[in-house]
Model the fold of this input.
Amino acid sequence: SYELTQPPSVSVSPGQTASITCFGDKLGDKDASWYQQRPGQSPVLVIFQDAKRPSGIPERFSGSKSGNTATLTISGTQAMDEADYYCQAWDSIAAWVFGGGTKLTVL
Amino acid sequence: QVQLVESGGGVVQPGRSLELSCAASGFTFSGYAIHWVRQAPGKGLEWVAVVSYDGTNKHNADSVRGRFSISRDNSKDTAYLQMNSLRPEDTAVYYCARDLSICSGGSCYSVALDFWGQGTQVTVPS
Done:
């Protein structure tokens, strides 16, 4: 089966930059997406096709990919950004796969 | 605006069945594939199933294959998830989500799930 690996947790101070990584075999050949899930809420798409931002998502959210590692970057992190973040990619065998999720804490 | 509203969740005994519904509004339902994704208590997201825009293509995760069946009725702007032989490990919040596909060179492929419903809780006690 296909797996996407994320760090369980990341901490950041308000106003600083947070980076969350997502590693997967041959992820460089796939499109990576990122979802934000605030406590008690449904997931929200924040990045698709590695680096594209849907309408309504603040510019402080950006995505990139290098080799088989995708990265979600949040610049000028705000308290409201505290949430769980999931990466996702499509695999020809495992279909739609999510990473295990990263809990972002804004200290 | 795009809305997806799930319903049909509840408490069901192991081995029994349940059907979830996902009612869509605010967009042309028949133009989009629809997914079901679940989240067990305190756990991450797990993709469950997808149905194509016209209902002709369906795909399930290995964990539910042979037990769950996805379908849709475009005349009612509604997708369904029929869950049979339920197990305690199926306990989760079930979300439906709209597929975002990109078309290039005459073919289209899924790149993300761009809108999600609020979810419906399914509990299978052990």
Notes: The interface with chain A takes residues 35, 37, 44-47, 50, 59, 61-62, 95, 97, 100, 102, 109-119 of chain B (CB under 8 Å).
